[in-house]
Write a structure and sequence with these properties.
The chain has about 425 residues and is α/β, with parallel strands linked by helices. The protein has a single domain, classed as FAD/NAD(P)-binding domain (3-Layer(bba) Sandwich), CATH 3.50.50.60. Helices cover about 30% and strands about 25% of the residues. The protein has nine helices and 21 strands. Strands 5, 6, 7, 13, 14, 15, 16, 17, 18 and 21 form a ten-stranded mixed beta sheet that branches. A hairpin with a 2-residue loop joins strand 11 and strand 12. Helix 1 runs parallel beside helix 5, helix 2 packs across helix 3 and helix 3 packs across helix 8. It starts with 5 loop residues before the first strand and ends in a 10-residue tail after the last strand. Bound molecules: flavin-adenine dinucleotide. The site of flavin-adenine dinucleotide has 44 residues, from helix 1, strand 13, strand 18 and helix 8. It comes from Microlunatus phosphovorus (strain ATCC 700054 / DSM 10555 / JCM 9379 / NBRC 101784 / NCIMB 13414 / VKM Ac-1990 / NM-1). It holds the Pfam family DAO. This is Putative oxidoreductase.
């Protein structure tokens, strides 16, 4: 199919952000020409590689958010994150019901006394803000030393690749034109009025507005970005189906998701078909990394995840991890995503270039909500000021523990027990394939 010469809006990137933006644009204004351009294939990025723990929370921990931004904003942000979870559940129910299954909440657990005291402080902050997040006593093995957890709701288990494809299919049904294997190489001033020229390997499109939904772009240098996002490679795995009695003992497929409170700590959930999806552990800072260091980091992560699983229940020693994969996430200085307008050099200041990224590894709900907000802003032509570049004084900013943990955990670990290791490695899978 040939690219159209022009469009009202071009959305770049067919992950959850791009899919949600295109769908919300088309739902509100079906008469517009909306084009979705994807460098690879739908859900080729993080959206096809996520572990599918859908739950609230956005930005820095609540105690830091309250201290820094005040009661009103900290409270509203949390409530927005709860609403975003509900929105994903509703959208998935409508467009991709097979991508979502219920979960009874999320337990953020303390593995150490220091983490337990942090969680207690956060529980006091939630209570002071009138938010429904409470301290719980837990029998979770990862929290054996503290028995302390924070209980979050609502939550759901999601196959993010399936969800992305469901939203894109819905957008196409509403008239959005999708072009896969069409990397965008750059943006140039258009010839008419405030238009923009979107340059791709297959030709150019003139558009009134462009939405960059590429997060950690796969084509560095080609697209304007907000400087300062830090890209990490993170890894995950999924086990073979567990025996029935073990699934029951672990709480069944709707059991709460378990997430360690530690930076890059382990997290897991059960799938509808009785597997465990696990993530966390060694990560690699992408800037300056070689393919060897990235490969070593993912091997370390998969071996580390095996050890975390073994700590959950002795019977898990007999259950193999059947697939492993890695993907990229982006961190921001304040833990908040960056969603807004860009003012790229070389383009007129009136150019409508929008961008969303920096999900800090927690984008399942936030991307979909951001897509909806971006669609509204593109349609109203909101004249907000451009996003500001961010700097990284590593010593002081809130994401520092994650980066430090990534660097520390990337150092070689003990070799994995090969007999029980993953059956296959997929360094760059196109999409996860397990039942939500
Ligand atoms: C291993 C892993 C586990 C995760 N687990 C969870 C979880 O349990 N819960 C949670 O909330 N979040 C999780 N996340 C984070 C979540 O998956 C992401 O925040 C979210 O998917 C980001 O979506 P996106 O659409 O912004 O980016 P992406 O899904 O990365 O989409 C960007 C798209 O843009 C395309 N692209 C890039 N450059 C160009 C270009 N120049 N031209 C055209 N197209 C381009 C890419 O090919 C890609 O398809 C996880 C992430 C990973 C990697």
């Amino acid at each position: 199919m040939l690219l159209p010469p022009d469009a009202d809006v071009v959305v770049v990137g067919a992950g959850l952000t791009g899919a949600s933006t295109a769908l919300h644009l088309a739902e509100q204004r079906p008469e517009l020409e909306i084009v979705l351009l994807e460098a690879d294939h739908v859900a080729a990025g993080a959206s096809g590689r996520g572990t599918g723990l859908l739950g609230p929370r956005l930005g820095p921990p609540i105690d830091i958010a309250r201290r820094r931004d005040g009661d009103q904003l900290a409270r509203r942000r949390h409530l927005d994150s709860v609403a975003a979870v509900d929105r994903v559940r509703a959208l998935a129910g409508r467009w991709a019901p097979q991508a979502i299954s219920p979960a009874t909440g999320q337990l953020v657990v303390a593995q150490t006394a220091a983490e337990a005291s942090l969680l207690r402080r956060r529980a006091r902050t939630y209570a002071a803000l009138g938010l429904d997040v409470s301290l719980a006593v837990t029998d979770e093995p990862w929290a054996a030393a503290t028995r302390t957890a924070l209980a979050y709701a609502p939550a759901a288990s999601v196959d993010p690749g399936l969800l992305t494809r469901g939203l894109v299919t819905a957008a196409i049904d509403l008239g959005v034109q999708l072009f896969e294997r069409t990397p965008v190489l750059g943006l140039e001033p258009g010839s008419v009025g405030h238009s923009l020229k979107v340059v791709t390997r297959r030709g150019s499109i003139t558009a009134r507005a462009v939405v960059l939904a590429v997060d950690v772009t796969q084509h560095p240098g080609s697209l304007p970005v907000v400087p300062g996002q830090l890209a990490l490679q993170v890894s995950a795995g999924v086990t073979d189906p567990l025996p029935e009695d073990l699934i029951t003992e672990l709480g069944g497929p709707t059991a709460p998701h378990i997430l360690s409170a530690a930076a890059l700590g382990p997290y897991r959930r059960l799938t509808a078909d009785g597997r465990i999806v696990i993530g966390g552990g060694p990560a690699a800072v992408l800037a300056g990394a070689t393919s060897r260091t990235l490969a070593a980091a993912e091997r370390n992560a998969w071996a580390w995840q095996r050890r975390q699983l073994d700590a959950v229940h002795p019977a898990l020693a007999a259950v193999a991890i059947s697939r492993c994969w890695s993907g990229r996430i982006s961190l921001t200085r304040d833990g908040l995503p960056q969603v807004g307008r860009l003012a790229p050099p070389g383009l007129p200041s009136t150019a409508e270039v929008w961008s969303a990224g920096g999900w800090n590894g927690h984008g399942l709900a936030a991307t979909v909500a951001a897509g909806q907000r971006l669609a509204d802003r593109v349609l109203t032509g909101s004249a907000e000021p451009p996003l500001r570049p961010i700097r990284w004084p590593l010593a002081t900013h809130p994401a520092a523990p994650i980066v430090r943990a990534a660097l520390r955990l990337s150092t070689p670990a003990a070799p994995a027990n090969r007999s029980r290791g993953p059956k296959s490695f997929e360094g760059q899978p196109g999409a996860t394939s397990y039942s939500s």
